[in-house]
Amino acid sequence: MMDIAKARLRTRPYQFSLRTGRTAEDVLNEFAERQLPGIVVAERGPHYLVLRPEGRRRYGGEVAVLLGIAVVLGVLILSAASVVLISLLPLSLVPALPLLFDNRPDLAISAVPDDHGGTRVTVHGQATAPLAAALDAYLGSLPRLSVTPIGVPPRAVS
């Protein structure tokens, strides 16, 4: 079985949406309690979960901004010696490049109550194959909510 916590994982876009008869809180609690190897709940709100691989991210947006500011200040100080050195200012974008190529399997699950007494569950993001399989198994087990429009008689299912 592939280890989810490896540094470079093959991910694929994952999108899924359904309506269920369970409450939004139940849907999110049930999924948050599942033990997924190498995946943790990174953020949780009243109607959403964000899943990420386990492990610390040492290089993030904050570090990239600080390094970019340091490069700008360094170039401005060096430009006191020669005005031509101000042409090095675009180098301040270099610390952001690793973030552009970062392909982590981050995924968000939202569960929002709808007008028909059910819950709209939406999943969107990048998922590894084991995470996608776990999501498919869980979402496939949720009871579907079928809503008939007003004025249309319900159909009999045979």
Structure description:
The protein has 158 residues and is α+β, with helices and mostly antiparallel strands. Helix content is 28%, strand content 23%. A 5-stranded antiparallel beta sheet has the order 1-5-4-3-2. Strand 4 and strand 5 form a beta hairpin. The radius of gyration is 23 Å and the shape is elongated. The two termini are 41 Å apart.
Helix content: 25-40%
Provide the number of structural domains.
Answer: 2
The CATH topology label of the largest domain is Alpha-D-Glucose-1,6-Bisphosphate, Chain A, domain 4
Mean pLDDT across every amino acid position: 83
CATH class of the largest domain: Alpha Beta
**Unreliable spans:** 1-7
In percent, how much strand structure appears in the residues? 15-25%
Number of helices in the DSSP assignment: 4
What can be said about the biggest beta sheet?
5 strands, antiparallel
State the CATH superfamily name of the largest domain.
START domain
- SSE run: EHEEHHEEH
Radius of gyration: 23 Å
Shape: elongated
Structural class: alpha+beta
Q: Order of strands across the widest beta sheet?
A: 1-5-4-3-2
Termini separation: 41 Å
Total strands: the figure is 5
What is the CATH architecture annotation of the largest domain? Answer: 2-Layer Sandwich
